[in-house]
Write a structure and sequence with these properties.
Elements: H1 2-25, E1 32-35, E2 37-53, E3 56-60, E4 65-70, E5 77-78, E6 83-88, H2 93-125, H3 131-160, E7 162-165, E8 168-171, E9 173-175, E10 180-185, E11 192-193, E12 204-209, E13 214-221, H4 222-225, E14 233-238, E15 241-260, E16 263-272, E17 285-302, E18 307-309, E19 312-319, E20 322-327, E21 329-333, E22 337-342, E23 349-352
Antiparallel strand pairs: 1-23, 2-13, 2-17, 3-12, 4-6, 4-11, 5-10, 6-9, 7-8, 10-12, 13-16, 14-15, 14-17, 15-16, 17-22, 18-19, 19-20, 21-22
Helix pairs in contact: 2-3
């Protein structure tokens, strides 16, 4: 009998030891309460892109040759009509020979017709030919004279690069088509220039743009593009200017998607309304937050406190010493906070569980 009492007593001690061992060894899970607050929430879409001028001009030449002189530096502000490049003609031997021979042939033809016109003039004065015959001969002579002058001017332009015609200087200077800032220079002194024609794009000489009119050119994910419309307000952040917040508005959403890796993206343009004192440069990387919808002074909770189970949403609330789940309806979310439509109200405490440890 004493042995059984001893055994029972020993087993009770062992069970008590095991209980206290597990009870004390298990870490106590600390929870804290977060109250439902009231505030503003905005649903936004994010676009990633760069700052670009609204109109960028690629300057090209309509005459062939060699760059003889560059009359600007990159970054210069130029006015419309300001000279940018001086092009020195560089005709091929065949072009030069053809131009000279064409001038010589035109001169021979003109001299012959001039002699014919002189003889016809004498006959006309003697009333030996009619006025119509005289006018026809004079017309042929004037036409030949014009062809000779044209071929002479073409040869002079090939040789010197400039002529003066009808009290106007015609030269091989390339001038700025607009007022703006020189963004890039593509050719330098001594480089050959291929002219812009109907059959070839021509050599790009430089690019310039009006930096007073800028826009954001970027892409937005297909998930958000259906929520965006022209005219929506946006806030642009520049990577190189972290303190700047530049307002803008959506100007254009491209109708066709493009693939980048596994993502489907749409191009979007956002007009910059105000530089907000920032000094922007073409090519700055930027992100734009486009405001889709907004709710003011509504009940809010951190979105991490909302549990998703079987297509429903719940939050945990204290119930005495325990907790219970309460189903809620939600509205707008900005990725951090979420609008609470029903289930809990402003001021109600919600349990926030500590994050699970990764083992």
């Amino acid at each position: 009998m004493k042995k059984w009492i001893f055994r029972v007593f020993a087993l009770a001690l062992l069970l008590t030891f095991v209980y206290f061992l597990f009870a004390c060894g298990r870490p106590k899970v600390e929870t804290k309460l977060v109250a439902v607050s009231r505030g503003d929430i905005r649903e936004k879409a994010l676009a990633v892109g760069t700052i670009e001028p609204e109109k960028e001009i690629k300057v090209k030449s309509t005459i062939p040759g060699i760059v003889a002189e560059v009359l600007f530096k990159v970054g210069d502000a130029v006015k419309a009509g300001a000279p940018l490049f001086k092009i020195s003609p560089n005709p091929t031997p065949i072009e030069y020979v053809e131009a000279r021979r064409a001038m010589e042939l035109a001169e021979v033809t003109m001299q012959k017709l001039k002699s014919d016109w002189t003889r016809q003039l004498e006959l006309f004065k003697g009333n030996l030919i009619s006025r119509s015959e005289m006018d026809a001969t004079e017309g042929l002579y004037k036409e030949a004279e014009l062809r000779f002058r044209t071929s002479s001017e073409r040869l002079e332009l090939l040789e010197k690069g400039r002529i003066r015609m009808a009290n106007r200087d015609i030269d091989s200077l390339i001038k700025s088509p607009i007022s703006g800032i020189i963004l890039a220079q593509s050719v330098f002194q001594g480089d050959p220039v291929v002219p812009l024609t109907n059959f070839q794009p021509g050599t790009e000489l430089c690019s310039l743009a009006d930096m007073g009119s800028l826009l954001f050119k970027g892409t937005v994910d297909e998930i958000d593009v259906g929520k965006i419309a022209d005219g929506l307000a946006a806030e642009i952040q520049i990577g190189a200017l972290p303190e700047a917040r530049i307002p803008g508005r959506v100007d254009r959403i491209f109708p066709k998607a493009k693939k980048e890796g596994n993502a489907t993206l749409f191009d979007i343009w956002i007009l910059i309304d105000d530089l907000a004192g920032a000094s922007l440069r073409a090519g700055f990387s930027a992100t734009a937050s486009i405001q889709i919808r907004e709710r003011r002074q509504v009940p809010l909770l951190p979105e991490r406190l909302v549990l998703f189970e079987d297509g429903k949403k719940f939050v945990e609330v204290p119930d005495g010493e325990k907790t219970k789940k309460v189903e809620v309806r939600t509205g707008l979310s900005d990725g951090l906070n979420i609008e609470i439509l029903d289930g809990v109200k402003e001021g109600d405490p919600v349990v926030e569980r500590p994050p699970r440890e990764i083992k």
